[in-house]
Inverse folding.
């Protein structure tokens, strides 16, 4: 089957995608979204025509003929739409309104390495149809296989080189017993076959896992290195070992005078790695109870520490929402977290208010027991096991279902007057950073209610799944078709995820550059994303952080910032300077887990002398 230039879709699926976008553009009552969908369809069809002319032979094959007829019909539909007075009248009305407010200005220049360069046909179309830009086709246009860390598999009785290697060995053994067909790498299958009849070796590996946990338990003051090492074993633990380790985290938090971010990160990773039916409602309630006293006093700590802790608490709640634990009591959740929410929702700091709103929304889906993104999350794990074709197709189906659910949630919110009024207030043109900040906080605070769910949280969680699995084309579709795409909370979380993707050294330079280019697009394209100055400040903050990392992408980040500072629109130039001069506190993108300590817990249980460990490094 041939493959089109539109992502990694087949010609048939690319044609379906173009037709879908055309149908959406024709029916949409939102002129901004209508033009975005129109441009997406135009770009897909243009690339399909080029591909067909270059690579699809003219034969009598029914499939080939069907594709050609489908392209011709879609192009005809595109031409009809472009001359439709109804379609362009509403777009021209929107253009005039926005131009009068001073919102629109097409930025010139190009990002380094042509990351966000657009085709000449696309640029001519912009000039013709009102200077409303959409996402360049080069940005996240295709899916990628997610990066996988390789491990050398040990010989029988050979000393292991690290706990991650031990975890990988145990994972293969566990997978072999449940789904042997999922192990497709020849070296892994050979290793499993060799060890299958060696009970002594299997027992040795299992004993090492238990011994590492015991070594961790014996440490009085557990640092971030020890926590990072032991939690990498979470997905391969037996149920008893899992609960022993979870109990150790309970005890450490209870004894701590100050809550540490690495303790929270450890709990989050442990919950994420929990086996089926390992966790109960009582386990999660106990975690909340252990955290309650610490969260009550969180505002007394230094701002950088508070930023880190609130980010980690959100990670813990995300993990709980993913865990599918049923039977949780709403009143217990409210009681355990009420002081935390009460403190943060009164803050004047956008980062803290966002984290509070995020935590509130996550509790809504913890109570669900079966979140909207759960099926996609399960399928994403198959991407690293050589099943990308099946998983990609499944992701597309799950994404369509999620978008349908998000539209249902959003429709319900539109019937709540105070939510509709607050949300609409974010799209009325340029404001001062201070005024926009107040509107941002007011809008975010609408998420601080147990009375209703909002669409932006599950949309962000689906984005997590797609980015983790390298499903960038589906991610692109999500962010442009989600009904909450103009919600400032969605945009704040989206920008944070793009920043995290950029600092993830496991992804390639092209992926990093795409993430930076999309940040620039959100900042500059007010027609699609609105003019939320506090979100723009967050984008500038992220890009400034990226200019200091030892990656090639820092030059791209610097180029984007220069472009912001030289924008032809004086309002945007002033906004950019305000962002640069705002509070210099650097909000954390993520908490990076450290490398295992030296000597590691595994070294200690294997009685490896310190000198040998150092020689290996």
């Amino acid at each position: 089957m041939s493959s089109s230039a539109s992502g990694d879709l087949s010609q048939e699926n690319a044609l379906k995608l173009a037709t879908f976008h055309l149908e959406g553009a024709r029916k949409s009552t939102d002129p901004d979204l209508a033009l975005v969908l129109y441009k997406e369809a135009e770009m897909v069809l243009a690339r399909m025509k080029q591909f067909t002319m270059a690579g699809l032979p003219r034969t009598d094959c029914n499939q080939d003929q069907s594709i050609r007829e489908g392209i011709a019909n879609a192009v005809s539909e595109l031409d009809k739409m472009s001359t439709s007075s109804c379609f362009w009248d509403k777009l021209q009305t929107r253009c005039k309104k926005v131009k009068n407010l001073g919102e629109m200005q097409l930025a010139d220049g190009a990002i380094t390495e042509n990351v966000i360069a657009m085709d000449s046909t696309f640029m001519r179309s912009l000039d013709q149809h009102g200077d409303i830009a959409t996402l360049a086709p080069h940005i996240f246009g295709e899916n990628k296989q997610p990066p996988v860390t390789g491990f050398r598999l040990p010989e029988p009785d050979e000393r292991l080189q690290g706990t991650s290697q031990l975890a990988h060995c145990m994972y293969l053994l566990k997978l072999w017993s449940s789904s042997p067909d999922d192990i497709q790498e020849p070296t892994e299958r050979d290793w499993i076959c060799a060890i299958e009849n060696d009970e002594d070796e299997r027992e040795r590996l299992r004993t090492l896992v238990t011994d590492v946990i015991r070594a961790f338990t014996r440490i009085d003051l557990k640092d971030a290195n020890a926590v990072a090492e032991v939690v990498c074993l979470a997905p391969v633990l037996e149920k008893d070992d899992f609960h022993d380790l979870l109990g150790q985290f309970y005890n450490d938090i209870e004894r701590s005078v100050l809550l540490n971010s690495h303790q929270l990160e450890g709990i989050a990773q442990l919950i994420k790695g929990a086996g089926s039916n390992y966790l109960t409602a009582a386990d999660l309630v106990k975690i909340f109870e252990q955290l309650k006293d610490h969260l009550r006093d969180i505002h007394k700590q230094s701002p950088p520490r508070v930023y880190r802790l609130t980010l980690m608490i959100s990670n813990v709640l995300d993990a709980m929402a993913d865990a599918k634990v049923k039977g949780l009591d709403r009143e217990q959740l409210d009681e355990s977290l009420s002081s935390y929410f009460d403190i943060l929702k009164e803050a004047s700091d956008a980062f803290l208010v966002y984290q509070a709103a995020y935590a509130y929304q996550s509790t809504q889906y913890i109570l669900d027991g079966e979140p909207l993104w759960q099926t996609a999350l399960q399928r994403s794990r198959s991407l690293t096991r050589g099943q990308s074709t099946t998983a990609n197709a499944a992701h597309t189906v799950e994404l369509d279902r999620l978008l349908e659910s998000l539209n249902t949630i959003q429709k319900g919110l539109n019937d709540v007057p105070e939510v509709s009024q607050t949300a609409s207030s974010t799209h009325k043109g340029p404001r001062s950073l201070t005024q926009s900040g107040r509107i941002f906080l007011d809008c975010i605070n609408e998420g601080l209610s147990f009375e209703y769910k909002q669409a932006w949280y599950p949309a962000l969680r689906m984005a997590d799944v797609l980015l983790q699995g390298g499903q960038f084309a589906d991610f692109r579709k999500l962010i442009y078709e989600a009904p909450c795409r103009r919600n400032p909370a969605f945009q704040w979380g989206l920008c944070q995820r793009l920043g995290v993707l950029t600092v993830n050294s496991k992804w390639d330079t092209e992926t990093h550059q795409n993430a930076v280019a999309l940040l620039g697009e959100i900042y500059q394209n007010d027609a699609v994303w609105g003019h939320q100055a506090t979100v723009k400040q967050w984008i500038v903050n992220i890009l400034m952080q990226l200019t200091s990392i030892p990656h090639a992408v820092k030059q791209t980040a610097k180029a984007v910032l220069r472009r912001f500072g030289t924008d032809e629109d004086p309002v945007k130039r002033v906004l950019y300077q305000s962002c640069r001069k705002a509070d210099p506190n650097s909000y954390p993108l993520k908490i990076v887990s450290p490398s295992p300590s030296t000597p590691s817990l595994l070294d200690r249980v294997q009685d490896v002398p310190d000198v040998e460990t150092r020689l290996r490094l």
